[in-house]
Amino acid sequence: MTAIAIASTSGQCLPVLLKSIECYVPNDVDVYISSAFDVQMPDRRVVCMPNTATNFGDAYNKVVKVAFMEHDLLVVSNDDVVLTPTSYDKLMADYRLLSEQHKVGWVAAKCDYARPAQNIRSYKQLNGPRFQEEDWIYECQVVAPIFGVISRAAWQDYDPINWFSDDVQCYELVKQGYKNFVSRCYVHHVGSQTVGEDFTKCRQEAEPWLKANRPEYHKLWY
Question: From CA 45, how far away is CA 1, in angstroms rounded?
Fold first, then answer.
C-alpha cells in the first residue's frame, strides 16, 4: 500500500485537500505531512512533522524521506489541490499498468493549472463534455508532480530551490533510464499557493543556485 506525502506552508487550501482525501482515498493509505499545523484525520493514520524549510525542494525531501522509511510507493501532493472521486484510483491504476512495460519515474496528474502537457486547458478535442485527451496516458520528459506517484527506487532528492527543482529531478530520472508519464488522473489545482505568482521573482531566485550547482540546466533555462 502506498501513502500520500504533503508539504504545506500557509495551509490555506489544506483543509479542502484533506477532506477530498478522506472522501476519495482508501483509509488504509497513510498521510505524511510537513506543516506548521497539527493535522489529524478521523479515518486514517497521519504522521505530522514541522515544516522548517525555506524552499520547495527541502520541504518535500524531508517529508518524502520519512514516508519512504515505511512505504515503497508514494503519492506526492501539493497542498493546494483537490481530488475527484477517481483521482487516486486512476493514478494508481495507470502506475501499475505502466510499470509492467517501462522503468517508471513519475506518473503525474492532469490539472487546470500547470505546464501545457498536463493542463487540460490546452487540450483541443471534445468528446461529449470532456476533452478526449483526458483519457490519454502519455510519456512526457518533464512533469510537475502536483499530484504524482513515484517509487522509492526512482526517487532522488529535489534541489534546494523553488522553481526548477522538479524539472531537474525529471531530467535526472530520464538520464538514469526512467520514463515519466502524464496519467488519466485529474485534480483541481488552485495554483501558486506556496511560492506565489510573481513568476519573474521565482525564476530569478533559482538562478544563482542553478548557475553554481547545475550549470548544464542553467544554460538550458537562462
Answer: 13
Query: Sign (positive/negative) of CA torsion 173, 131, 119, 82?
Result: negative
SS3 of 170, please? Answer: helix
How long, in residues, is the chain? 222
What pLDDT, in 10s, does the model give residues 146-205?
999 999 999 999 999 888 899 999 999 999 999 999 999 999 999 765 555 666 887 888
Detail the DSSP E strand segments found in the chain. Answer: 3-7, 30-35, 46-50, 73-77, 81-83, 104-110, 126-127, 130-131, 138-139, 147-151, 179-189
Name the residue among 140, 130, 131, 80 with its Cα closest to residue 107.
Answer: 140
What CA dihedral angle connects 117, 77, 57 and 46, to 10 degrees? -170
Which grid cell sits at 69?
A: 522509511
Kindly state which CATH superfamily the domain 3-221 is placed in. Answer: Spore Coat Polysaccharide Biosynthesis Protein SpsA; Chain A (3.90.550.10)
Query: Of 133, 135, 141, 124, whose CA–CA distance to 180 is shortest?
Result: 141
Who contacts 168 (Cβ-Cβ below 8 Å, separation ≥6)?
A: 158, 159, 210, 214, 217
Domain range summary for the chain, segments of one domain joined by +? 3-221
